[in-house]
Amino acid sequence: MQTGLTDIPLTSHGESIVRQLGTRIVGQGKILDPAHIQHVFVSPRQRAQKTYDLLFQDVDKKPSCSVEEDVREWEYGVCEGKTTSTIRSEIGDDWDIWTMGCPEGESPDQIRDRCDRVIKKIVDMADAHHGKEDTEGHHGDIVVVSHGHFSRCFITRWCQLEIAQGRIFVADTGALHKLGFQHRNFQERSLLGLNLYSVNE
User: Fold this and answer.
1) pLDDT digits (tens, 9 = 90+) for 95-146
2) Residues 6+ apart with CB under 8 A from 58
3) Contact of 135 with 85, CB cutoff 8 Å
4) Which H or E run contains 25?
5) Dihedrals φ, ψ of 195, to 5°?
6) How far does Cα 184 stand from its chain's mean position?
7) d(CA 87, CA 93)
8) If DSSP codes are grouped into helix, strand and coil, which group holds residue 135?
9) Residue 142: which of 134, 160, 154 has the closest Cα?
10) Residue 99 CB: number of other CB atoms within 10 A?
């Protein structure tokens, strides 16, 4: 079911998944070490904000975070709250979100532009941080807490691919996706890990 603008809460099952994930990935010496996190961007949807709270609930000092409108889920327009089969029965069997977007919602170009704005913001932050890695009080990792379709689009654009190629990525709920770059060159952006520490059944 497509849920973009609808501000539904995290389900009890979702909360359980995030708590399990948090124990595995958050903490000193773990992949999300708060001491190494420069900033966290969180979607304005309450389920994403709850995810942030649960992930870092056992941390003495949570990393700085801000609500970032541009990391919200794909806006589905008339497709909101509907399954893919229902959408295709109403719009047409050839409907494909990756090339057509959603009527009265976002087009692939619009979500591409959103992803690119977030990437620029992250690259600018990382660029400003370079050379300060060994300075006390400076941290490098940047975390994005978002949603399924947006995550796939963001991974696609981080890898400098066209949005339609996002269909090749599967971004599990309750998993970590790690992105980075090679040779200290932001033009060599890479996917370093997909669906890490997944706790999905």
Assistant:
1) 999 999 999 999 999 999 999 999 999 999 987 766 555 544 445 899 999 9
2) 22, 23, 26, 27
3) no
4) helix 12-25
5) 60, 45
6) 22
7) 9
8) coil
9) 154
10) 13
Alpha helices by DSSP H, 39-147: 46-55, 84-91, 97-100, 108-129
Q: For residues 70 and 103, give the distance between their C-alpha atoms in angstroms, rounded to a whole number.
A: 20
Whether 175 and 146 have beta carbons less than 8 Å apart is answered as no
The encoded tokens of residue 65 equal: 């975070």
Phi, psi (5° rounding) for residue 178? -110, 125
**Residues facing 190 on adjacent strands:** 180
Bridge partners of 41, per DSSP, are: 66, 144
pTM for this predicted structure: 0.90
**CA-CA distance, 43 to 4, in Å (whole number)?**
11
**Looking up tokens 């893919």, which residue turns up?**
84
Tokens for 118, please give them.
């977030």
Question: Token pair for residue 132?
Answer: 């300060």
| Tens-place pLDDT, residues 38-77 | 999 999 999 999 999 999 999 999 999 999 999 999 999 9
* Burial class of residue 83 (count of CB atoms within 10 Å of its CB; 0-12, 13-18, 19+): exposed
The token duo for 88 is 């295709």
For residue 31, pLDDT over 90 is answered with yes
